[in-house]
Design a protein that fits this description.
The complex is a heterotrimer of chains A (166), B (480) and C (343).
Chain A (H helix, E strand, L loop, with lengths): L2 H22 L3 H21 L3 H24 L3 H5 L5 H24 L16 H11 L1 H22 L4
Chain B lengths: L2 H7 L1 H16 L9 H20 L3 E4 L4 E3 L1 H27 L5 H19 L3 H19 L6 H32 L4 H11 L3 H17 L8 H8 L2 H7 L2 H17 L4 H24 L4 H22 L1 H29 L15 H4 L1 H15 L5 H15 L3 H27 L14 H19 L2 H11 L5
Antiparallel strand pairs in B: 1-2
Chain C lengths: L1 H39 L15 H11 L10 H17 L9 E4 L2 E4 L8 H22 L3 H32 L4 H11 L3 H4 L1 H14 L11 H4 L9 H26 L21 H22 L5 H30 L1
Antiparallel strand pairs in C: 1-2
Helix pairs in contact in C: 1-2, 1-10, 1-11, 2-10, 3-4, 3-10, 4-5, 5-8, 5-12, 8-10, 8-12, 10-11
Classes of the chains: A mainly alpha (166), B mainly alpha (480), C mainly alpha (343).
Amino acid sequence: MSLYSGFIYFFGILSIFLGIMVITRKNAIHSAVYLIFCILSIAGLFFLLQAEFIAGIQIIVYAGGIMVIYVFTILLIKLEVVKGLKRRWEIKLITAIVFSALSGEILYLLLRKREALLPEEYGIAKGTVQAVGSYLLRDYLIPFEVVSLLLLVAMIGAIMLSRKKV
Amino acid sequence: MSYLIDLKSISSELILSLFAVLILVISPFIREEKRKFITYFSIIGLVGSFIALFIQPMKESLFWKTLTVDRFSLYFKALFLIATFLVVLISRKFFEHERYHKAEYYFFLLLTTVGLMFMVSSVDLISLYVSFELMAISCYVLAGFLKRDLRSNEAGMKYFVLGVFSSGVLLFGFSFLFGLTGETGFNKIFQNLSNKGTDFFLIIAMLTIAGALFFKIAAVPFHMWTPDVYEGAPTPVTAYLSVAPKAACFAIFIRLFLEVLPMLKNEWQTLIAWVSLFTMTYGNIAALTQRSVKRMFAYSSIAHAGYILIGLAAGGEFGIWGMLYYLLIYTFMNIGAFSIFIFMAKKEHFGEEFPDFSGLAQRAPYFSAIIVLILLSLTGIPPTGGFIAKVYIFSAAIKQKLYWLAIAGVLNSVISLYYYFRLGMAMYFKEPPKDIEVKYSPSFFLLLAITIIGLAILLLGIFPHPFASMAKISAFQFLN
Amino acid sequence: MSIFIDFVLIPIIKILVIVTFVFVSVLILIWIERRFQGFVQSRLGPNRVGPQGILQSVADAIKLLTKEDVIPNQVDRFIFNISPIIAFVTALVVFALIPFGAELNIFGRKITLYLADLNIGLLFIIGFNSIGVFGIILGGWAAKSKYPLLGSLRSASQMISYEVALIMSLVSVLFFSRSLSLVEIVKAQQEMKVWFAFIQPLAFFIFFIAGVAESNRLPFDLPEAESELVGGFHTEYSGMKFAFYFVAEFAHVIFFSALVTVLFFGGWLRPFPNVDWLNFLDYIPPVFWFLGKLAFFVFIFMWIRATWPRYRYDQLEMISWKWLIPLALVNIFITGLIVILVK
């Protein structure tokens, strides 16, 4: 086992452990803290898979941006209300089914050893900033521009709907 | 800089987005009373974009194979522009009546149309998804646009929560397609898949994509949101939602299933045939029992989605051709049907129940005549366009030996006759209520829209040939 | 053996040097800040412990380390303990990417004067900087008392608004550097023979203001405004944990000065790299240029702190959203236009 795969296992197991901690905590804010660390450790996996840009974005957008909003929201709600919720058995059942379906699917894909390849083996460039940039501004120029309209719509819509003045 | 030439081919989208953003920028500088100007402004944008459709060059592949401008997409773009034009015409009366005439409304409406236009042009999973979301997010905002109105809030919230879920399902399906092939372009996915043969995961991908699109076109079993959203959303928005996004999703159905997944033809044909049967039967039976006219039209639009799906299930030249023609006439019929409520709007929720329509013919004869025309067309009775469209669709089903589906379609049309004519009966054969004195004063725009719709329905029914051949040319690119 | 030296020994030595550098300079900075503020505001400042009170910070450090660690009853212990660590670690980690100089030859071995040079260096730094916010938000929440909570809420919105300006001001620098690696950015300035501050003054201006706000210093220290919020988010902290927050804040100051130096003032390059007759300046080792510039910006940070009154909360948000962000956008637009036209 090389050092490289050692690191992959380390971050992989760490992510799983932190992910389990996220869903088993009773306190919402504890879950959020574990989720931050979980995201960071997944960013570590992206680093190892040479998707450096995605790793950076994972840290900035998810850990730094979205999680701040999450934590902010949790700070402003009453946690006691959330604690009182009982988990119904139907929900548990559905969760179990979805979970086993998804993990079964991943296992199946891994076991049949066909399509699970590293990006390089697909002939895709490394995930450096340059590679991602040339994809965004060349191959996917139109989607990239449409996204700007999409964000404009989302922003104006959010402002318009949440503004107090009718 | 070779791609700058490609910009010419999408000039109609560019014009429309430019006008949308301009509306947003100039609206703060216009005083409240002069907001009418915005309506004219957006009409200019729509007309300009429509003209550009005929001028811009067609091109097989644009911007590194993410878009295509072919006859099929041009047909749909023209359809969206017509639908948006009619909706803009009927909007002003509604929002002035509600005292909520905002420039943002036109901004969202135009950008939804831009999203739809990119959707039908996309030949790449990513550009398809991004434009799909542009359309979807603007639609959520539009559905909840009337902030004071609780029903509109409810509609916006329901549509948002369920719609986001369906977008997620769509993306899930796309991820399977990408995972199986490593490509995002339709053409490459098709080539890659046809070398491999069918796969269990390919069927999952087909099912999830179909599920998400069924949601948007409100087909059973993903129709639950429709009556509530259609009832709650501002009426012009309802008219728009029931027409344009549906048409775009049918276009995606055709493009994805015929260009990318033809190897699963047997599977999706069966699926769509059954969904179509359930959709039209459910829509018609539920429409029978409604007391609110608005909800009745919501269910009837579900039923119509079922009829159109017959064309997809039948496939082949006649099926697709019939779908395109049906969608065109459906655009006119449904916008006309929902503009009734804008005409009727007097006080809160008036004009949504059957009794409100009693004796309408005596008070507004011209308008009632056109409503009857719309109802005839919705049922599928000559000499209206609805008849021709149904003939195309059902004959396509018979050609493909789907006799049971064609028979079910005809039977369903017969059922629909009952509830459509309940409304017609109320208008012509019942006495107007004595206690309420109502005077109808439609605005110029509303009259214009209604007249255009009436003429179009007649024209499509009596002289179908030029339009049918347009639909035919657009549909035939998918054969071989 | 060589692998062991290259990949284990040298990095460990570098890490030790960097951490010691940060700690020692924090101690010195605290003393300088207090003396300097005393001087500016016509007070004495600490002057008893050691000559000119120079040992005062050491005494304070010993006091904080040996003090009883008081944990109030009502706090959420897990979060209360972990948040000073988050603040502290994120403030230190980013130093790994700061290039203190180019390469050195020691015993025939090339040694780079930075711990790591990442392809996405700048993104990494911004990312960890934004994670540092959690140290403050969570710390304030975990204390479960009103002033810390108010402080942490303020800090969260302040950080979010200024981060936008910070990142946007960097974009126009990237037009010239064409890389996100900090080392490459300095090398780009070497090749262009000009410091980016001279071709991007507006970006520098925005970046510096946002940097002051991001490190919660006056005039943007609303999260810990003493007159309104007692001690802000760290009101309930004492002893070691308080020291962590304290060091983190000063480490931020040093870090932002270092970043300004690298991004806008040529890192380890000598002044005026385009003027030939100044070549004799090259005899001074690059590290000293870097440290000199760093010291200068740290001094400016203190100067601002000593002279500027605190902003009101709405003014603070207004500065970012109504001035800095639009200015940064305009700057990006103009720079992009110029770059295209020149090409």
